[in-house]
Structures are given as structure tokens and as C-alpha cells.
Amino acid sequence: MSINQLDQFMQLLIHSKSTVVITGAGISTACGYPDLDKMNEITIKHTQNKQPLMQILTNRFAQQNPTDFYRLYRLTHFRPEVLPSASHQILTELEKRKLITGIITFNLDYLHTIAGAKRVIEYWGSINDNYCIAHHHRFDLNYLQDHAVPYCPIDNSLILPIFVMRNMVALKAAVTAGRQLIKQADLLIVMGTKLHHGLISNQAKLIVINDEPIKVPQAVTLFIQNKLDPVLEELLFRLKMKGW
Prior knowledge:
Elements: H1 3-15, E1 19-23, H2 36-45, H3 53-56, H4 59-64, H5 66-75, H6 86-96, E2 102-105, H7 111-114, E3 120-122, E4 130-132, E5 138-139, H8 141-146, E6 159-161, H9 162-165, H10 172-184, E7 187-191, E8 205-210, E9 222-225, H11 228-241
Parallel strand pairs: 1-2, 1-7, 2-3, 7-8, 8-9
Antiparallel strand pairs: 4-5, 4-6
Helix pairs in contact: 1-11, 6-11
């Protein structure tokens, strides 16, 4: 991360009319969330048949093995005690300063909303979106915190996270909303993700901040190979110095 890169980052952001941020696991690992590789290691270690994560996050497994599912879920995705990272908080601050238009996330951890961001599109939902399997009554993460294996008090059916009920199929409405947001943007900032599905090629300038290069469907205007927190902390400091 160089001074020139930070200056270019700041100038691109200041002069953008509509900036959309796209986040992945890298924004949350700094505050204690394991990434997908680490979660996969956890499920293989803690299941009798050494089952990988994607075999656990299925409607069928969860309904057939609710106790095992929730034991593993609390070791992996469901970590409501984890607080937002500095990057989550800084993105919220940039939204308040009207420097970003919205956030699209591949994450399930709900941390952007906990950090106070208002326009967040979660492609798969989050740990805060839970429904009973019988009549789809909704329950937030607080209900799951209070019940080791949660059942609906209305119809007594098992409650599951939306992304498990849907077998990790993205929410059509969220993907549509995300694509509309991207189409209207003249600057995209992709940070902390190796994923590129869900990105659509457009004429926007593109900033990528990540530990390693990623494949994207368009030319990259600026690539910063670094951890997210120090980059965004320095960006916010420079913006404040410039009166933003």
C-alpha cells in the first residue's frame, strides 16, 4: 500500500457520483469470523464422517440432524458475539458522508447492519434471517441465541437460517437489486473477496482491495494488495484532513 495508491483511492471516491462497495469474508476475518476454508476445517474436524461445510449447510441435513446442525452452526457461521471490524464501521461512516451509495455483501454475518449501514444487500440473507419450516414465521438472531435448537412457538416446527432452507441459493430479489445498484454506479470497490459471481461488467471504474489478486469481468483501475482495516483507516484519516 503506497501513498500514491491511497491518494488515487481518495480521488476516485471523492469524484464518484455513485460508489458501490462489494464485500466478502476478508472484511470479517479481522474481527474473529473464520473464512470459508477455516469453517470447512471445523466441520470436517467436528463431524463423525468428516463432512465438509457445504454438506452441513443443507436443508436436508439440518432437518434430519437438528442438534448436530446447530452445534456445527454455532462453531462456524453463527457468532453473534463478534463485533464489526474497523472496516465495517468505516464503510458506515462513508455512507453517512454520502461517499458510498450502498453495500453488496457475500457474507452471512449481518455485521454491516450491526455497524449501522443502511443500504445493505445480502445475496444469501444473513444469520438474522431465520424461518420455521412449516409456515415460514420469521425469527431474528436473538431468538436463536436463546434456544440451543430453536423451534417455532407458533407451530412447533424447526427454525432454520434462510440460506440453509434455500441450500445456499442466492436470493433472487437481492441479486436483482444488487445488479441494479451496480449498473447505476460509476465506481465499484471490491474488498476482501475471492468471489466474482454476482459482479456484472459495466463502465464503472473498479478498485480491488484484497490480500491477493482476483479475477473480475472488467479492467481494474486500482488494485491495493493489503489488509482492509489499515487501508480504510488511512483513507478515512485523509478524507477528514481534506474536510470530507
